[in-house]
Every structure is written in structure tokens, then in C-alpha cells.
């Protein structure tokens, strides 16, 4: 790649495709036909940015403020977005949910709250196993998100044409979100996990990933010498890093050092999204916080109380709101003990009236968890609109200044 593209970072040899030198990467999708994949990516690369660099620069300032304690970042949306749910009422419902939650945190903390959807591109999922054996004995590809394949058994082969569809669905979603935010006056940004590297790199223009404002590195792709870190270290977008319970201070500092070369180091470049599980926070978090505090990195500490608190009830994946609230409470307390305030919250949620997570008082909610019409997530369970407003209301109470 030319030296103009990597903006003076020749010495470190980064380019939008330098991750390819890492060989086969974790969570890589195996397509039958790589020429079709290349053509799809080339086509997406010629399409206009979904998010412009100037907008990304604006968002960087908000993350910098959050790293200093003078702003708060709220991220929320589906675990895996569904192409079939790219509908005006559903998108507007997600927007209104974030808007209401932001107002509730703002009135408690008295700082600006910036909202970011897991939206307009959250179409690729990491899986523990690439293949799945069905009850019939048939072995098929695991569902990897609508950018890769469909949930129905006959749609499981990865299809590169879905990447182009994903771009178009993301564009339609962005259009709907910008109409919603123009009406209401609160801006909203997009985000997704930077997982599918062929897709991420073809949307990289100069040093910006123009597919979203905020991108995060997943817990399963955090290998220090891996392709995902290699790709992310070169781009200007604010970056999230999921932090699971096995993270050590040493490993965390190595990740920070790799993702923050001197050319890109700035307050709030990195958001540490802790997803430790309620039982692990008090043990695992303090040494991590102390190590980062002693370093030169000024990060945003964001709590994801969803991914460490999953459970299976009668064969159904769910989470309890009580565990989620407790994880956020413990996280706030550990940070406070170290003189830091929580800078963000990351939730899997939808504005819809789904029945996927267990409410504080299931009886009050008059629901029983069931694999029925109201359990329709493509991947992890989401808080319903009512549950998500309630949880954030309670978190806001803990953040009151
Ligand atoms: C997710 O955010 O949907 C996810 C897979 O999270 P994690 O990488 O933290 O497990
Ligand atoms: Mn998830």
C-alpha cells in the first residue's frame, strides 16, 4: 500500500490491508468463491461513505470528553441486527429508546450524553464453533450474522452478495436515523464490531473506517498479534475493546500499546468495555483500572453488563436484569474507589416489546420466558424497550452527582 495512504506510518507498515499478512484470522469466514468476495468488496469500496471523516472527528471529541469525565457515551442496540427489521418504526423505536435513556443519564450526571446505536452495520457475529450439527445429524455453518448467512438451515452457506445488501441496509438505516435525529435534535452515531476484516478494510478511506462512527474489538478477536488488532491500530475512529474476565493487566497494557501508536494516541481513543460478569468485577477490575491509571493512556471506562451474565433457562439463552444492574453497580464502585467515573454504558436492547431477558420481577412484567413470538433475537437476548428504560433509570440513580 502506498505511503500516502498510511499517512506517514510507513515505519510501522500499516495499511488497510496489512492485516492480511497475519494469515488466516480468528473468526474468518470461509467462502466457496473468493473471487466473488473480492468483487463484492470492490463494489462496496466504490460506494459512498456511510459516515464521513468530519463526523468521526466530531465523535472523537466526545470520547475525549468522556475520558476526562465531562461527557458520557451510551451504546445500545441489537446483538445482531436483522435485515428484515430494517423498518422505519423499528429503527425509530431504537432511536427513541436511546434518546430517552440519554435524557435520564443527563439529568443525573449533568454532563452531555452522546448516543451510539449498535446499528447500521451490526451484521456479523463471532461464534465459538464455525459449524453446527443439527438434530437431524446434518452439519451446517453456524449462523454468523446477516452479512454472512441466514438463520434458516437452507441459507447457511456464506454468500458474499450479502455484504453488498448489508451496505445498502446500513445506508437505509442511517437515512432513517438522520431523519429521526433532525426531528428531535439529538444526534446519533452508528457502531458495530469490527469483525469481518475484508468488509472493514474495503470501507477504509484514507485513515478512516467510513462504515461507522465507533468500532469495537470483540472478546474473541483480541489476540495481540492477530489480524483484528493489526487492522484497528491504523484507523482514526474511536475504538472499543471488550474486556473479559481472563484479561490481565499485562495483556491490557499490551493491547493499549498496540492500538495507540504515537500517531494516533489521544484522550478517549480507546474505550475499555468491561464485560466481566457480576461475580468477577470486584476481583478482576481493580488491578486493570490501576494499571491503566499508571499508564499514559486516557481511556473511557464503559460497562457492558450483558455479555458476562448470560445463562440458559430451559434451553433458552437469557440474562437477568438484576445481574446486569449489579454488574454496573460494582463497576461504578470499583472505578470510584480509584477516583474515576464511569464514562459509558453498552447494552443489548431494542425498542420492541420482546421477551428475551428476565425482568427484576418477572411476575410484575407478567411474562414467562418462552420461545414464542416475543423471543425473536437472532443471537443474544435483548432488553425490551420497557426493560432498557428501567435499567438505565436505575443506573442513572447510581451516577447521580
Ligand atoms: C457482542 O457485543 O455481541 C459480543 C459478541 O461481545 P463480546 O465480544 O464481548 O463477547
Ligand atoms: Mn451479543
TrEMBL record:
Cofactor(s) it depends on: Mn(2+); Co(2+); Cd(2+)
Pfam families found in the cross-reference section: DAHP_synth_2
Manganese listed as a keyword: yes
UniProt EC number: 2.5.1.54
Alphabetical keyword list: Amino-acid biosynthesis, Aromatic amino acid biosynthesis, Cadmium, Cobalt, Manganese, Transferase
Cofactor note: Binds 1 divalent cation per subunit. The enzyme is active with manganese, cobalt or cadmium ions.
Known pathway: Metabolic intermediate biosynthesis; chorismate biosynthesis; chorismate from D-erythrose 4-phosphate and phosphoenolpyruvate: step 1/7
Name under which the protein is recorded: Phospho-2-dehydro-3-deoxyheptonate aldolase
Source species: Penicillium angulare
Organism phylogeny: Eukaryota, Fungi, Dikarya, Ascomycota, Pezizomycotina
